[in-house]
Amino acid sequence: MFRPYAFFISGIKKFFDAFMLERFNHKLLVT
């Protein structure tokens, strides 16, 4: 059974991971 919300959650997680990684890199650049 295909669950659309599982795909949605994975998309959110991918976006969140990319966002956190960008914040981390930015922090390294600033310091």
TrEMBL record:
It comes from the Bacteria. This is Uncharacterized protein.
